[in-house]
Amino acid sequence: MAASQVSQGHPYVPRDLHLPDYAPCFLSMSNILSVFAFSSLLVVSLIWIFSGRLKTTKVDRVLMCWWAFTGLTHMIVEGYFVFSPEFFKDKTGFYLAEVWKEYSKGDSRYAGRDAGVVTVEGLTAVLEGPASLLVVYAIATGKSYSYILQFAISLGQLYGTAVYYITAILEGDNFSTNSFYYYAYYIGANASWIVIPSIVAIRCWRKICAAFWVQGAQTKKPKVR
Predict the structure, then answer these.
(1) The overall pTM is greater than 0.85
(2) Which of 42, 48, 61, 97 is the most buried (most CB within 10 A)?
(3) 171-194 b/e with 16+ CB inside 10 Å = b?
(4) Which residues contact 167 (CB under 8 A, 6 or more apart)?
(5) Alpha-carbon dihedral of residues 111, 117, 120, 123, nearest 10 degrees?
């Protein structure tokens, strides 16, 4: 009887997850996703227009868009989660609280403040977020540390994603309300942070290796007397 009473009031799994004073979502899924999509498109569009004035390749312009998007997502969206432990109680309809209430349907560890998730998201928001924006600056100004910074952040993103999924598997991988939220949120929403960092890391690895190869070849040239 007690477990049944506890389960009432929130849509998450496990049903006995203790979320006192939980406030249901005010915004619909379509509204939440529409705002996120519009905001993301706005950021990408502004960076693309700005980068067009620079002497950069199209690949670098695309990368600037990615790093701006991921950096702001880490800092604003994930940062809010880290520093707002009781977002599920929000009754004002604040957008970022609504985002995490909705996403928790795909992974209730967020609403339940799982220690592993909070740690991964905290490091991501505090370290990888600002570093990603630094990459935008580095590419725009042609800084020499651009590739090594992109490589390091991409590895961090891949490591964080691996920890995120592995800990879920070790804990039973039963945190989604249903299969739709499992594949749409838990799998789909995180896929970009597997595919894109992998591509970026491989590209940067090749660039760094090529630079060292050229440097090594130059040092081995015989001196002309």
Answers:
(1) yes
(2) 97
(3) eeeebbbeeebbebbbeebeeebe
(4) 114, 116, 117
(5) 40
